[in-house]
Write a structure and sequence with these properties.
The protein has six helices and eight strands, in the order βαββαββββαβααα. It is an alpha+beta fold and 265 residues long. It has a single domain, classed as Alpha-D-Glucose-1,6-Bisphosphate, Chain A, domain 4, CATH 3.30.530. The chain has an eight-stranded mixed beta sheet with strand order 2-3-4-5-6-8-1-7. β2 and β3 form a beta hairpin. The protein is globular. Belongs to the PtdIns transfer protein family. PI transfer class IIB subfamily. Keywords: Lipid transport, Lipid-binding, Transport.
Length: 265
C-alpha cells in the first residue's frame, strides 16, 4: 500500500469552501462527461454517523471504457466503470474507490478541512506506527504545473482576480501572506496487491490523483464568482441539476440499440 498526504491550500475559508467544493465537483463532472464516458450519479442521500453526525452519502460510477488505451479496451468489458462511494460529514469526508474489473485495486481518501496554511502535523490522526509510511506533499494551486491539455488561462490562479471578493492573482509565497487561507488535508491510500505490478500501479494512481486534486482546487478558486453568492440550498439545487444532465450524457450511448448484422465497424 502506498500512502500519501496531500495538503492543498486555498485563499478561502473552510465555510466558503463548503459551497465551492460542491459547485466545483458538480460542474467538473458535467464538463468531463459525454456519451458513454464520465460521471453517473447512482445515489445521493443524507446519512448519519455516531461520531461525525449528519452527512451526505453519494455513490457514483465513473465510466472510462472508450478513454482507455486500445490495448486495454481489447480485453476490458464494454461497460467499464469505477465505483466511488463518499460520506461527506463536512469538514471531514471519506471517499472509497473500487473496480469490479480490477478487484485488487482499492483507494481510500480521508479528508479534513482546516482554516490554516497546512501547518497541522497530523490532523487526520494517522497512528504513530503508520506515520513512517506516510509522505507529505504540498500541492500549490498557483505554481504547480497542470497538465497542458487541461490548462486554461482563465483558470490560472496566477492571472485570475475575483470581481466579487477581490482575491487573486496569487503570487509567490501567497500561502503565508494572503488572508483568508484554508487547507484541504487528504490522506490517500492506494492498494494494488499484484506481484510485479504493485509499485508501478500504486505510484501511477497516486500521480493521477494528484493531477485531479490540483486541477479541481484551481477550478474551485477561479470559479468563485460563479458560486460565492450561493447558499447551501442553492448549491444543492445546482448539484442536482448538473447530476441529471451528466447522467443523461453518460447513459446516452448505452441506450443506443446494438448494431445490426449489416453494421460496419
Amino acid at each position: 500500500m502506498l500512502t500519501k498526504e496531500y495538503r492543498i491550500c486555498m485563499p478561502l475559508t473552510v465555510e466558503e469552501y463548503k459551497i465551492g467544493q460542491l459547485y466545483m465537483i458538480a460542474r467538473h463532472s458535467l464538463e468531463q462527461s459525454d456519451a458513454g464516458n464520465g460521471v453517473e450519479v447512482v445515489e445521493n442521500k443524507e446519512c448519519y454517523d455516531e461520531e461525525h453526525g449528519k452527512g451526505q452519502y453519494t455513490e457514483k460510477r465513473i465510466h472510462l471504457s472508450s478513454r482507455l488505451p486500445y490495448w486495454i479496451q481489447a480485453f476490458c468489458p464494454k461497460v467499464f466503470y469505477i465505483v466511488e462511494k463518499g460520506w461527506n460529514y463536512y469538514p471531514f469526508t471519506i471517499t472509497e474507490y473500487t473496480c469490479s474489473f480490477i478487484p485488487k485495486l482499492n483507494i481510500t481518501i480521508l479528508t479534513k478541512f482546516e482554516d490554516n496554511a497546512g501547518t497541522s502535523d497530523n490532523c487526520l490522526c494517522v497512528p504513530e506506527e503508520k506515520n513512517e509510511e506516510r509522505t507529505v506533499d504540498f500541492v500549490d494551486i498557483a505554481f504547480d504545473e497542470v497538465n497542458m491539455k487541461h490548462y486554461k488561462k482563465e483558470e490560472d490562479p496566477k492571472f485570475f482576480k475575483s470581481k466579487i471578493t477581490g482575491r487573486g492573482p496569487l503570487v509567490e509565497g501567497w500561502r503565508q501572506t494572503d488572508k483568508p487561507v484554508m487547507c484541504s488535508y487528504k490522506l490517500v491510500q492506494v492498494s494494488f496487491e499484484v506481484w510485479g505490478l504493485q509499485t508501478k500501479v500504486e505510484d501511477f494512481v497516486q500521480r493521477c490523483i494528484r493531477d485531479v486534486l490540483l486541477l479541481g482546487h484551481r477550478q474551485a478558486f477561479t470559479w468563485i464568482d460563479e458560486w460565492h453568492w450561493m447558499s447551501l440550498d442553492d448549491v444543492r439545487e445546482y448539484e442536482h441539476k448538473k447530476q441529471e444532465e451528466a447522467n443523461q450524457k453518460v447513459l446516452a450511448e448505452q441506450a443506443q440499440p446494438a448494431p445490426g448484422p449489416d453494421s460496419v465497424d
